[in-house]
Amino acid sequence: MSVETINGHVLFPHAPNWETEPDWQRSWQTFISDAVAGQESRFGMRDQALTRLDWTVLALDLQERARLEDRMLAAKKSGKACAPHWGRASMLASPVTSTTVTVAATVWPWAVDDYLFLMDDFRNYDARKILTVAGNVLTLTAAVSRTYAAGLQVWPLIYGKFVADSMDGVTSHHGETALGIQELRSPATATVGTMGSAGTGVGGWKVGTTLVVS
Questions:
Q1: pLDDT tens digits, 30-72
Q2: Is 182 inside any structural domain?
Q3: CA 197 to CA 85: how far, in whole Å?
Q4: Which of 21, 123, 140, 172 could form a disulfide with 128, with the two C-beta atoms 3.0–4.6 Å apart?
């Protein structure tokens, strides 16, 4: 079967098996990652953390297992995947029928060009790019394909390097597997420029072509 991609990343819409909670990790340190496209991926010290998301999926029937396996094979080939950022949801304050999405008060910093992932109770889903953000009202670049009721959860997408274990067999027709996505680039923006002195000690950094510490 064909698999969906967003910005060149294979989409994994499979919800977690919540008996095993998703695991979130953040890292700032320098490290060398395994090759994705024939070269080492080198990372340096950074102001913004890189996030890793790990979650467990339980395929309940042969159809879902086949979809999951096809996506895993495609992601292992490309090395890149994206998925809803499970555990970082916002709630719909009103039904979504077209391009306007109103979310309840949330601490998640929704931003223009983010992708919004919506899923109903029957696991039908849409992923749409955000055109504008005005408070808790998000305008999408394209209308959703179905109505999403108020009270449903919506998620941002996380992108990165795909990590997965082999699928374990629970019975002859369904199995459980652990999926992971390690960000290669932080979507957050560091503050660049001159910062005011904090007082005694190191006052601030000016980042540009040179590094000046005052």
A1: 556 665 666 655 555 556 788 999 999 988 778 888 888 899 9
A2: yes
A3: 36
A4: 140
Closest residue by Cα to residue 23 from 50, 56, 57, 49: 56
Task: Specify if 134 maps to a domain.
Answer: yes
Expressed as residue numbers, the domain containing 120 is: 5-189
Give the best-scoring range by mean pLDDT among 51-60, 97-106, 195-204: 97-106
Beta strands (DSSP E) in 66-210 are 80-84, 90-91, 100-102, 115-119, 125-134, 137-140, 153-164, 168-169, 175-182, 205-207
The total number of structural domains in the chain stands at: 1
Domain-embedded: residue 54: yes
14, with CB counted inside 10 A (0-12, 13-18, 19+), is: buried
Predicted confidence (pLDDT) per residue in 165-190, tens digit: 655 555 555 667 899 999 987 776 55
C-alpha pair distances (Å), 176 with each of 4, 56, 97, 171: 21, 7, 34, 10
The share of the chain scoring above pLDDT 70, in percent, equals: 72
Residue 31 lies in a domain: yes
| Contacts of residue 134, Cβ cutoff 8 Å, sequence gap at least 6 | none
Distance CA 97, CA 150 (A): 11
The answer, yes or no, to whether residue 133 has pLDDT greater than 70, is yes
Residue 94: how many other CB atoms lie within 10 Å: 15
In angstroms, the CA 115 to CA 123 distance is 18
CATH of the domain at 86: 2.40.10.170
